[in-house]
Amino acid sequence: MTDDIQGAHFKARHFGWSVEDRVATITLDRPERKNPLTFESYRELIATFRALQKMEDVKAVVLTGAGGNFSSGGDVHEIIGPLVELRDDGDLDGLLSFTRMTGSLVSAMRDCPQPIVAAVDGVCAGAGAILAMASDLRYGTPASRVGFLFVRVGLSGADMGACAILPRIIGHGRATELLYTGRFMSAEEAERWGFYNRVIAADTVLTEAQSMARTLAYGPTFAHALTKRCLHHEWAMAIDDALTLEAEAQALCMQSEDFARAYRAFAAKQTPVFEGD
Fold it and tell me: Is the dihedral of CA 34, 37, 38, 40 positive or negative?
C-alpha cells in the first residue's frame, strides 16, 4: 500500500467496499451465514483500517452487514474449530497469536482517524458485537440484537477490549451483566443504555448511518481526528493530564485552515465550508 492510496481505488476481497461522497462503506458480506468473520477477513479488516490512515479521499467510514444481519462473530467452522485443534495440540503460542490478532483489529479501528459509524441490523454477536462497540457511533434497528457471547463457549468476556470499552459506553454494572451472562441486549435496552445513538427502521438504518457519516465527512475532519484521538487516549488519564493533552490538541486545531475559514465565514455571516486542512 502506497502513501497516496485512494479509497476509491482500494479493493477488498473478503467484504464489500465502496466509496461515495467522502464516505467509505464496509459491508460484511456472507449473508447466508449471517456475516461471520474468518481469519482472512480479520486480517484484511486490520489492513484496511490501517490503510485508511493514508486515504485522503475518505473522511468517514460506515460499517454494516448484508442480508439483514450485522455479524454473527467468528465463524464456527473456520475459526472456532481450528482454535480447538490448537488447544488440543497444546499450542499456546498459536492461540495467543490469534487473540492478539483480534485485538489488533480493535486497535486499528481506534487508531483510524476517520469516524466510524456502525449500522446494525439483526444479529450482532461475539466479535460482531465487538466491531460495533469499537465504532464511534452506532445506529440500530428494532430487530437488532447485540450479544457478547464469549461465555457461552466457555471463554471470558474479556475479549478484544470488551472489559475496557463496553463499561465506558453503557456503565460498569450493565456491561458486567452482559459479559457474565452472554445474553442478547435488545434494541430498546441498547438505545436506553447508550450503546446505540439511535434506533432506526431497518429499511433506512444504512441510509441514516451514511448520512451521518457524510455530515462528519464534510466537517472539520482534522479536528474530528483529534477529537477521536483524545476520546481514546483520555480513558486512562488523570484530569490534569487530559487538560494538558486537550490544550495541545486545540492549539493544533487553531493552526488549521478550517479554523480560519470558520472565523471568516462567521464574520461574513456565511456557513463555513470545511476542507479538513
Answer: positive
pLDDT digits (tens, 9 = 90+) for 149-182: 999 888 899 999 999 999 999 999 999 999 999 9
**Going edge to edge, which strands form the sheet with 16-20?**
16-20, 23-28, 60-65, 116-120, 137-140, 198-199
Closest CA to 186 of 151, 152, 144: 144
List, for residues 16-39, the tens digit of each pLDDT value.
Answer: 999 999 999 999 999 999 999 999
Phi, psi (degrees; rounded to nearest 5) at 66: -90, 155
pLDDT at residue number 2:
43
Residue 18: in which H helix or E strand, if any? strand 16-20
DSSP per-residue string spanning 98-153: HHHHHHHHHHHHHH-SS-EEEEE-SEEETHHHHHHHHSSEEEE-TT-EEE-GGGGG
pLDDT tens digits, residue range 188-211?
A: 999 999 999 999 999 999 999 999
Query: Which residues make Cβ contacts (< 8 Å) with residue 92, sequence separation at least 6?
Result: none
- C-alpha cell at position 168: 465506558
AA letter at 153: V
In words, the CATH class of domain 7-217 is alpha beta
Instruction: Write down the pTM of the prediction.
Output: 0.92
The CATH number that domain 221-267 falls under is: 1.10.12
Q: Where are the domains of the chain?
A: 7-217, 221-267
The rounded distance, in Å, linking the Cα atoms of 171 and 153 is 24
d(CA 153, CA 143): 24
Q: For 257-261, what is the mean pLDDT?
A: 88
